[in-house]
Amino acid sequence: MELNIISLILLYYLKRPMGLITVSPEWKRLFNSGMLIAGILLILVSIWVPVVSPIALLLSVVLAALIVYLTLKNEELHHRKGMIYAWLPLMALIVIEELTELISENLLNSIDIYTRSAKIFAFIWAIGMWINNSKQRKALEAEKLKSLARERDYKITEALKNQLEKQVAERTAELTTQKNNLEKALHDLKATQDQLVHAEKMASLGELTAGIAHEIQNPLNFVNNFSEVSNELLTELKEELQKGNTTEALELAEDVFNNLEKISHHGKRAESIVKGMLQHSRNNTGEKVETDLNQLADEYLRLSYHGLRAKDKSFTADFKINEDTNLPKIPVIPQDLGRVMLNLINNGFYAAAEKKNKLKEDKDPNAESFIPKVTVETKALKNGVEISIEDNGPGIPVEIQSKIFQPFFTTKPTGKGTGLGLSMSYEIITKGHGGKLSVSSKPGLFTKFIITIPNLKK
């Protein structure tokens, strides 16, 4: 009877969930069947049928043995082993006691005191193990809860990680698209800037060409005129020699020599203008050569004036150059420095002419007496040279003087300028020659651009 009671307790314990740990439905069905068998055997043993009792005892022992064997050998029930170990000593004593009773009641009575003591100790062992097993079960349950919490945190972390990876991938794709768009925009901007710079250079070249065409006409006219006069003098010289008038012939020959000197002078002047044009138009090699800046400034002042005259026959202005005779030759890039001078002088003529037109529009009494004027002055410095270009135009307002060297900034009306001239001039002077380009202006009176170039002879 005791063995069946323990079997019922063990089967009930085995099928119960241990916190979060449960057994499969198949094991539950098997344990329920075992409990039914144990209950039947308990009833049979209780009725005490002499024929049935030994068989019921054998079945009880087999059932208990199966419970122990299946629990200890099955991995799914490994967490239930503690309960088996708790009750196993008591179950063994009960089986021994029952078998001894079947063999001999006298033998059982002789060892009864020992079996009772052993069963008491076995029962105490079972209770102690049960309590300890309960603690282990609670610890196992707590560990299982922690494991589930870690698993839940891991899943949440993985979900957040996947979400962040997705967001990073989307953001990366978005940034890549933006980067490609910015690179394309930058490429287009550079291409447009190159076109504008080229257009500015071509405009400068066009103005220079117009000035050269007008300026070169003067020495050519002198060459043609003195050539015609010399031809006439040579004819007269021939006639006088035929007549034998040597004195008059010598005088005519002297006049011819003088004319040839003038033809040579103006021919060299024309050659100088053509060289200047070629230097200005050819690609910049970056090579610096020692240059007479007085001559360079004088040529570009005249070329600027005649270029504007060629474009607008009604344009009139006065110009003057104050040369420092002690100005040394310094290494510069002539065509680049010429572009700067041409741009600044053109701006000066334009500003002074606009001031006159504004006076006329306003019907100012001083309009007729006002003469647009540009003055170029060179000056030798201790470690370089200074070139100033001043006009008597309307001046530049103080609030925009700091902006005039910025790319695309212009005070001219739309279509009259690209806003690159002063920016390019600033780059040529500061970066190309290591100098300075500054402006001084008083609104209503004048504007003066000052170019300072250091003397960097090797």
Automatic annotation (TrEMBL):
Enzyme class: transferase
Alphabetic keyword roster: Coiled coil, Kinase, Membrane, Phosphoprotein, Transferase, Transmembrane, Transmembrane helix
InterPro entries in UniProt: HATPase_C_sf, HATPase_dom, His_kinase_dom, HisK_dim/P_dom, HisK_dim/P_sf, Sig_transdc_His_kin-like_C
Pfam families documented for this protein: HATPase_c (PF02518), HisKA (PF00512)
Annotated transmembrane regions: 30-49, 55-72, 84-101, 113-131
Stretches of the chain forming a coiled coil according to its record: 131-202
Entry's EC annotation: 2.7.13.3
Superkingdom, natural source: Bacteria
Histidine kinase domain sequence ranges: 211-457
Catalytic activity, reaction form: ATP + protein L-histidine = ADP + protein N-phospho-L-histidine
Key word Transmembrane helix present: yes
One term of GO molecular function: phosphorelay sensor kinase activity
Name the record gives this protein: histidine kinase
Species: Algoriphagus faecimaris
